[in-house]
Amino acid sequence: MIEVRDLRREFRISEKAGFLRRAHRTVAAVDGVSFDVAAGEAVGYVGPNGAGKSTTIKMLTGILVPTSGTVRVSGVDPSRQRKELARRIGVVFGQRSQLWWDLPLADSFELLKAIYRVSGPDFAKRLAECADLLELGPFLTTPVRQLSLGQRMRGEVTAALLHAPDLLVLDEPTIGLDLESKERLREFLAELNTRRGTTLLLTTHDLDDIQRLCPRLVVIDHGTVLADGPLADLSAEVSPERVLVVDLDVAVEPLADLPGVVSVRTELGGRRQHLAFRRDVTTAAALIAAVAARAEVHDLSVVEPEIDDVVRTLYARRHADRSVGNVGVPHDSR
Ligand SMILES: Nc1ncnc2c1ncn2[C@@H]1O[C@H](COP(=O)(O)OP(=O)(O)OP(=O)(O)O)[C@@H](O)[C@H]1O
User: Within its chain, how far is the Cα of 65 from the centroid?
Assistant: First the structure.
């Protein structure tokens, strides 16, 4: 569905360099990015501010032309075949609107129906479905400029889906929404992906979006891909330990000698134990069995590293690598 190879986009920026003098330099916002997204996947494209996410999305959606490298989205070259691309994909930018500000929401949908040449029955069916799931009914006749952000975003998503694209690209779709609106939108997108098989690629700073929607993450920083894979694998990579918390019927000595256990914290006089164990040495199931052989277990849970910690550790590692490997090499001189 998406093929990105060695993608690079430079910007020439001009800076003040003394009285009346300006210096120019070139910065690479995206600096050799490669990844694929298969049909039906839901992929989170994440990274800190300025990492190059929006620049990549703009190249995928034909808004920006790459400096070098190749992009194919749904079989077309986005910047050269923008019309063809528009028929195949839907795009939602959290900070920009594709709706007509002064028109009622329903009129924007009618205009998009005409632009995309959607048949009457298809349009009615798709709009009814979105209106139902996203609860658009109460504000379909309200001018877009009077909608709340949450209402507008629901309208934006509907607008992007009226021509039934196979791929939906979303840039910060939940930014600024309240918790209830975020949850409603996530629920809708999850359904769209799992039931309809619509491929999703989204950028987000909200790690709950990822937890809820994206089995796979592509992590980017300084214009390059830091990591690509399932969240569970990335978390195993940054944190080889997991924690098993057991509640025992009776207090026992700290279970530090069980295979794979690297540290123990006890509570309730030894009846609750937090056993940090190495996932490459033992499994949670084997450890639970070993604990049960010592004392009766009446409750347990396995604590995974928080997703924010995983992503933060990946960034921090990369920065550490950079400071060791690239001392004194300015970003724009490569
Ligand atoms: N039109 C432009 N001219 C010059 N520099 C730009 C331009 N657009 C982006 N940049 C620079 O490219 C880098 C990547 O920007 P980009 O907007 O892609 O990051 P991002 O990951 O989307 O960030 P954020 O999470 O803050 O939205 C930044 O350093 C930014 O300042």
Answer: 23
Q: Is the CB of 90 under 6 A from ligand 1?
A: no
**Ligand 1 pocket: which of 8, 46, 54, 60 to mutate (most atoms within 8 A of CB):** 54
**Mean per-residue pLDDT for 112-134?**
90
CA 214 – ligand 1 centroid, Å: 23
| CATH fourth-level superfamily of 2-235 | P-loop containing nucleotide triphosphate hydrolases (3.40.50.300)
Going from the Cα of 171 to the center of ligand 1, the distance in angstroms, rounded, reads: 13
Closest C-alpha to 270, from 242, 301, 293, 291? 291
Distance 5 CA to ligand 1 centre (A): 20
pLDDT tens figures, 225-258: 988 998 778 877 777 788 899 999 999 999 999 9
Asked if 158 and 118 touch (Cβ cutoff 8 Å), the reply is: no
Nearest CA to ligand 1 atom 24: 49
Give CA separation, 78 vs 21, 64, 75, 173, 196, in Å: 38, 9, 9, 21, 24
Nearest CA to ligand 1 atom 25: 49
Per-residue pLDDT tens over the stretch 49-80: 888 999 999 999 999 999 999 999 999 999 89
Q: Is the CB of 8 under 6 A from ligand 1?
A: no
Class for domain 240-303, per CATH? alpha beta
Within 10 Å of residue 332's Cβ, how many Cβ atoms? 13
Segment (H or E) for 115: helix 105-115
Burial class (CB in 10 A: 0-12, 13-18, 19+), 185: buried
> d(Cα 13, Cα 26) in Å, to the nearest integer?
6
Residue 267 · residue 300 · CB < 8 Å: no
Q: Is 7's C-beta closer than 6 angstroms to any atom of ligand 1?
A: no
Residue 56: partners with Cβ closer than 8 Å, 6 or more residues away = 4, 7, 9, 30, 33, 45, 220
For the chain, the structural domain boundaries read: 2-235, 240-303
Mean pLDDT computed over every residue of the chain: 87
Q: How far apart are CA 123 and CA 164, in angstroms?
A: 9
Q: What global pTM score does this model have? A: 0.77
